[in-house]
Amino acid sequence: WLLISPDGVDQLEKVYPFQDFNQALDFANAVGELAQGANHHPAILVEWGKATITWWTHTIHGLHRNDFVMAAKTDYLHGK
Amino acid sequence: WLLISPDGVDQLEKVYPFQDFNQALDFANAVGELAQGANHHPAILVEWGKATITWWTHTIHGLHRNDFVMAAKTDYLHGK
Q: Facing residues of B43 across strands?
């Protein structure tokens, strides 16, 4: 995961490569389900061959412990 | 639709507001199906309450007539 700070807001970002658009979209849906269960939602950018997941906590304009947990769960989901 | 030119690449971009994350993700899936049928794929950014759709043609690093057609079809899909 990369620590980025657009407009001073710390965020965790990772690009997951896939073979095509639909595989990236499938992963977006799996992450969406994970997010729904945790009631904590990332930004998900789907493009041909990759999905970019970005976690941060809107209310504190930065990173909370929970974002690191969600990042780890995203990796786990990707590994399944 | 907004005409943007990140790194000199002309693109059509539009932000569609939704009531929550799942509605935005549902729209992403509908646009993904449209894209699959046309074999032309946008960038789709899903966030809580909005989906941002960006169309351009990678091979020409800019806009082709087809991108405008896809933009219109995206609007139609949203209106349904």
A: B54
Cβ distance B43 to A44 less than 8 Å, yes or no, reads: no
Written as six digits, the tokens of A61 are 């304009």
Best CA proximity match to A49, nearest among A26, A72, A76: A26
Q: CA–CA separation, B47 vs A42, rounded Å? A: 7
**pTM score of the predicted model:** 0.96
Flag whether the ipTM exceeds 0.90: yes
**Structure tokens that stand for B59 in this block:** 């091979």
Q: Give the model's confidence band at A80: pLDDT under 50 very low, under 70 low, under 90 confident, else very high.
A: confident
Interatomic CA distance for residues A49 and B75, integer angstroms: 24
Q: Cβ of B48 under 8 Å from any chain A Cβ? A: yes
